[in-house]
Amino acid sequence: MNAANSPSPLIPEDLVVHRRPMLLLDTIQDVSEARCIARVEVDPGAWYADAQGAMPGWFGIELMAQTVSAYSGYQKRLQGQEPRVGFLLGSLKYELPQQAFPGGQTLEVEAKLHFLDETGLSAFRCEIRHQGHRVACAMLKTFEPV
After folding, report:
1. What are the pLDDT digits (tens) for 48-76?
2. Which of 12, 94, 101, 134 allows an S-S link to 138, with CB 3.0 to 4.6 Å?
3. Domains in the chain, CATH or no CATH each
């Protein structure tokens, strides 16, 4: 199901257990059985911003993890359940060609389901894009107790 075609708009607060200011996702653009795409506006005045108003590059892992969480929260909602706390077990090969995400950028964060088993163990191929160009990617391993 496409978030844009959902009966009601999907907002991150409805799908992720984090709350602002720790919730970094601004909108959910698309979510389906296979993936979730979120949007993040890099705020140069935010608590995470460095002296130049940029988001440090290592925050990319958190953006990916929160997008995975939104994916899971959406799947739980479809089953009539509430979103739950999950755990980031690790990442594989985090590629980040730049040191930071400049303030004012709009980032698109995509998490594609790669693996999910009945115990709650999962893996997602994640990518962060700016204006259609990949600026970060990784494979995240996660666990959500069943």
Report:
1. 999 999 999 999 999 999 999 999 999 99
2. 94
3. 3-143 (3.10.129.10)
